[in-house]
Amino acid sequence: MNVLSFSYCFPNETNPNWGIFVFQRLKALSKFIDLQVCSPVPWFPFLVPGGKIVHGNWKGLEISRPRFFYTPKIFKNNDARFYARGILPWVKKLCRTWQPDILDAHFIWPDGVGVSLIAKDLGVPYVITLRGKLFECMKKPSQVRQCAEALKGASAVISVSSGLAEAAIELGADPARIRVIPNGVDAENFNIKDKKACRKFLGLPEDKKILVTVAHLGHRKGHHEVIRAIAGLAEDVCLVLVGGPAQGGTHETIMAEAEKSGVKKRVILAGPQPYDRVARYFSAADASVLASYREGCPNAVLESLACGTPVVATDVGAVRDILPVPGAGYIVPRKQVEPLKEGIKKVLSTKWNPESVLENSRVRSWEQVAYEVQMVFKEVVGE
What InterPro entries is this protein classified in (predicted)? Predict the structure, then answer.
């Protein structure tokens, strides 16, 4: 079976962790099928030089990065059309020597909608994986109409959460074609490690209660609520933020909130970290916190659980599907400081056994996830 996978969000030399969960699923999937990857790159004259196609290998996956026309901040409802128009010539050229049986789109926008247009032109079935982007599109009438059309035409829809699956059905997707398959975890990297050793390695205080949040610093990740929550907790509770600036959130905005809340000395900004160090931060923590306003299937939750570290997370995306309560943590409403504070207080006052947290969790390997995905593909092609 030949599968051509598309994802605008995919690791690159500049940002090796961007869309790493897409890479991990595709890498595991490549063991079952003949796979090629297309990660289109937005291009706008005067901002990004050239329009050439870049081919390469990313950690064992053959990947092509054709350009598509992209207008910053304006005409955003046309992104998917520009996406399809820009990369269709490259896809047609590929088909002369390698004919895909399925087009596999990650994210509904712009990938899913763009790929649906390409598939219609080629007469090839397509599959869309739904992640948190769908909820953002549902706020924009033109985009939601395009998303609905793409979902209706898909031969299968893979959703990383039950909530996203329900949203797809509301938009007209055939329930019989939807499969809920949450993300997996790289168990070779994310596993139980000695807490004291990790704190020493990372230079973190050994005498504090440490909360860790692994997420970019954008406002929708809920960092401001976490900072306000720890202001109401004991003085020995501190927060470590692992992630870089994004979507208007910077070190300065975070520390301004910390100073305003009177906890500036209790907030540690670790910045973006190499992938292999992120696991050490989870293992160094007493608990991890994810206070996001929206998510698809948050890998930060799965990776924390794989490290045996309990989680306090807001009730978004696949959190209810992947976080057992109270066996591995607590779920709280989003955008509410008081319930978040109480959830953190509960998790810090409980004595957790890392092995029990891992055993209670619903963490699966990427190989298990890939097997389920390829079974969906087999149904599509009639194998």
Answer: Glyco_trans_1 (IPR001296), Glyco_trans_4-like_N (IPR028098), Glycosyltransferase_grp1 (IPR050194)
Give the residues across from 331 on adjacent strands: 313
Same domain (yes/no): 150, 283: no
Q: Which of 289, 326, 320 is nearest to 163 (CA)?
A: 320
352 and 373 in one domain? Answer: no
Please say whether the beta carbons of 311 and 292 come within 8 A: no
The rounded distance, in Å, linking the Cα atoms of 9 and 20 is: 8
Say yes or no: 217 and 319 in one domain: yes
Q: What is the 3 state secondary structure string of 305-366?
A: HHCCCCEEEECCCCHHHHCCCCCCEEEECCCCHHHHHHHHHHHHHCCCCHHHHHHHCCCCEH
Read off the pTM.
Answer: 0.89
Residue 44 domain boundaries: 2-184+365-381
190 within domain boundaries: no
Q: What is the pLDDT of residues 45-97, one digit of tens each?
A: 755 555 567 888 999 999 999 988 877 778 889 999 999 999 999 999 999 99
Does one domain contain both 166 and 179? yes
How confident is the model over 330-359, as pLDDT tens digits? 999 999 999 999 999 999 999 999 999 999
Pair 20, 105 in one domain:
yes
